[in-house]
């Protein structure tokens, strides 16, 4: 069942029913100011940091769903309705939501009145624009009221929802221009150098800034007291909960329309001593706000800003595009894959409808993986991000697992000790160098733990990342897992003294002996990149030493990490096998099958093919590949959190979409294009749009998890948008299935496609030049390039050497066979 459709020409998803299975959201903002908006106008806004600089409130897990947002109420006679349906939930004569690239448009019609709300964050600004157009489509004059509404957050989102004894006494506002401009200045007395402004470019007939006055003391936002009575109270919040609401009385002749521009902005200015503590004079320096509002105070200015935003996305998405016989493939590759990758660049895992924006911040591992999906779009910002991530690393090569984007300090609750983290930094650096050819990043001075007094060149960070694994090997010679590897819930250094006791965790000084075959696969895969980087730097002895360590690790995996038909997952602290046919539950895991095959460990010995066959035999389902089988049916203290989930959910045999592309990529390594394609399409949103009532999350972006075959809700997704699935799947389809892959010395063309596909064309910008690529598959093979012609000249092999200079258009013809 569908709840909308793709509009490929306009790069939009059109939602035609407000009753989607879950709120379907979009992200507004490309730089520092961000808003999340659902298909019914729910959501919230923040500046840079969703925890520390939150402008508007959002109540997660609310009943009813998604009932906080930026709302516009229309009071037309006795009828109260919203353009986006919520929160009044009045039945509309027609409804439509269009989620586009950085903007959303909501159109509602009721009783001969059309309201269209265009919502976006302009480039180079710190505000959200709401353009509200009202049109009388009836044959009679209409007189009605419009009430805007936002609920301000008291900046620190965690404190805002917990510290009520303080926050119920700190709300302050200022009202200017007769109520057209509402300033939220909470805690300005603390010498904060920022405030929020909510304004409309028209004279108003009233305003409210106190929530109880607007809603009524026991009122609800579905029918606020002020709206029901069609009269604002001109309330001024003092303590309690500050809100922003404007009242506009509108008269429209038949066919007439009017447009209003509402601006919700973040404003920053230096604190002036004379303002502090003098509330009678006002403490807001309005000049920066006046300048911000003047940029968007007319419809023409707002329209120009929206056009600039659309042009930005058109240019960005022009870096990579394809045309094939597969309409769904084209729309995902050309638009939605890359759009989601850019959102993960901005958000990491911090703010979604499943992440509160309070706990996670930026992830070290997460952000390194996300970079794989956006480095081709914004290489300069990718460079900054890599160095930003590296600056949070510790001197021994380990890292904060997560850190706050403003403070660059780690999450104390999560800490460090995830032993895969250091190797992801090598993966990110290699991806950047392959894309740009810019080795100068290796010479950048980069601190440890954000301490400038502890700085080395970035190359030293990579060295310590590589050596961290070498310096942390377990009894079998495999990498120690630490607190966990990629699978945060597989905590194999847990123990209890007696059955039934709560578990403890071994500290570094006590061991820990648990080992990860997955990290071993990572070490081999990204160790090969480290060797190439060393050789480019002229560090031949170091490269040779690293190569020997890699070869030894390959041998160790084949000796101690192979279970006969698939790769083991790990050994726990007691040297018991995890992910083995000897286990009662959890006999086979997805992660090592994917990464050990990507690393080509045992490929010549046939191990890679056997592992992929085992994945297909034991882990395959119609909705994707589950993480493990069989699921854990009881809690295992020695395994940690993984067995705390019911069978079929999350790490306990859920379909973790993040590592499904590892299997698809692995299938291309052994040349099985049909199987790689099957794995890709089973979790690809455009290919499962028709089962939206089962899948439930947005049909235009990936989710982190789909309930596995052992779950009652098999096929139901959770945790959409902010997931490494976005980057990994784009990497899979662009670089391995389509096979257009940047490398250190040029651009590799190595498609691995289903044998039913005749070929495709692609445009790929690479190091300042544009490659126009035509791939033909006359023999209908799955993999293999028999001819590569570049600008009329035949090239040996399948790599196009990097071109000196920029601005070239390069014609590439590829024949598979």
Automatic annotation (TrEMBL):
Keywords from the UniProt entry: Glycosyltransferase, Transferase
Chain segments annotated as coiled-coil in the UniProt record: none
GO biological process: carbohydrate metabolic process
Pfam families assigned to the protein according to its UniProt record, in alphabetical order: GH94_b-supersand, Glyco_hydro_94
Gene Ontology terms for molecular function: carbohydrate binding; glycosyltransferase activity
Domain Glycosyl hydrolase 94 catalytic: 312-739
Domain Glycosyl hydrolase 94 supersandwich: 11-269
Protein name: Uncharacterized protein
Organism: Agathobacter rectalis (strain ATCC 33656 / DSM 3377 / JCM 17463 / KCTC 5835 / VPI 0990) (Eubacterium rectale)
